Amino acid sequence: MRTQRVLHGEGKVSLAYWERVSNSQANTSPYSAGIAWVAGQPAPLVEAKIPLIDQGFSHGDSTYDVISLWNGKIFRLDDHISRLEESCSRIRLQLPLTKRDLIQTLDDMARLSLLQGAHVQIVVTRGT
């Protein structure tokens, strides 16, 4: 049965999945399970914290964008940042970094994580 073969790793989708699992298990970066940018510094995702009184957390006063990371490179980053800037402008949020600094920060985070495939979520909140 085709479904059984895919579940056992013989299908293309499943093979690609198991290859990503194998690569992530071989990744020795402290950020391999995820990386966050907190107070101007990279942090393992499991250690990232935001205050309970953050307006984005308590009132949903935030905007976000999700980008794909393929082969260690962020897909169409400039387009995504432009869209994020537009979203921030519409709800009168200020990006905490310039576009250039944000692109550099995201590139640095991708490099530090050693991940080859991932989803990158950028969240901008009004803060506390």
Give a written overview of the molecule:
The structure is a single chain. The protein is α+β, with helices and mostly antiparallel strands. It has two domains: 1-30, no CATH class; 33-125, Aminotransferase class 4, branched-chain amino acid transferase, N-terminal domain (D-amino Acid Aminotransferase, Chain A, domain 1), CATH 3.30.470. Helices cover 43% and strands 22% of the residues. It has five helices and five strands. It has a three-stranded antiparallel beta sheet. It has a two-stranded antiparallel ribbon with strand order 1-2. A hairpin with a 2-residue loop joins β1 (35-38) and β2. It is globular and about 45 Å long. The termini are far apart. The relative contact order is 0.19. Mean pLDDT is 85; it is low at 1-9.
Give a short synopsis of this structure.
With 128 residues, the chain is an alpha+beta fold. Helices cover 43% and strands 22% of the residues. Strands 4-3-5 form a 3-stranded antiparallel beta sheet.
Write the layout of secondary structure elements.
Elements: H1 2-7, H2 12-26, E1 35-38, E2 41-44, H3 55-59, E3 62-70, E4 73-74, H4 77-90, H5 99-113, E5 117-125
Antiparallel strand pairs: 1-2, 3-4, 3-5
